[in-house]
Specification:
single chain, globular, alpha/beta, Rossmann fold, about 200 residues, 7 helices
């Protein structure tokens, strides 16, 4: 049986992926993670950075093979987990993420000021330099579906194309009119792509 872990972005809310998850096969086991201290989520003194978010994914995986579906900053967490535990990640879906690459070279809009305005109580580490990381994504062995909106200023399509060229087993799908929240606003288009990929019909 397919077990899918849904990882939100810096907004931290488990609800982000529910519009997509509700459109996936009912027989799949689905777990929607949230990030303590990010967005409007309650703080947890045990969570103080990316390493702790990776640990939360590991706790949810419970030593079994899982599929990871990740949004934006959650894609960095997913990539880190896939690199650390290649035997536990069956398939990956990365949506509008940096996956640990330098976004500035692709003309990405700096999101941090708007984030702080929207989530003034969010943990300070999320907008600090320690939240960024450079990852050897070319070492990710799991098949990867990349989903990008063509109208996303935070993670432009050029980022998705770059990742598609670096990941050894990846497919890029671009959602027309999609912004950084394309997985929510275009769930009817995104869900079938994810379903096909996780069922083994994609890359």
């Amino acid at each position: 049986m397919t077990t899918v872990l849904f990882l939100p972005g810096a907004g931290g809310a488990a609800a982000f992926w529910r519009p997509v998850g509700e459109r996936l096969p009912a027989g799949w086991t689905k777990h929607y993670l949230s990030w303590p201290g990010l967005g409007h989520e309650p703080h947890d003194p045990a969570v103080g950075g990316m390493d702790d978010l990776v640990r939360l994914v590991d706790d949810a995986a419970r030593d079994r093979p899982v599929d990871l579906v990740a949004q934006s900053m959650g894609g960095v967490v997913a990539a880190r987990y896939a690199l650390a535990h290649p035997d536990r990640v069956r398939r990956l879906v990365l949506a509008v993420t940096s996956a640990g690459i330098d976004m500035s070279r692709f003309g990405a809009e700096d999101w941090r000021a708007d984030y702080r305005a929207s989530f003034p109580r969010a943990a300070s580490w999320i907008t600090g330099p320690a939240a960024a990381s450079t990852l050897p994504v070319e070492n990710i062995t799991a098949p990867v579906l990349l989903i990008w909106g063509d109208s996303d200023p935070i993670s432009p399509v050029a980022v998705g194309r770059h990742l598609a060229g670096r990941l050894p087993n990846a497919e890029l799908q671009v959602i027309a009119g999609g912004d950084h929240d394309a997985a929510v606003t275009h769930a009817d288009s995104v869900a079938p792509l994810i379903a096909r990929h996780l069922a083994g019909g994609g890359t």
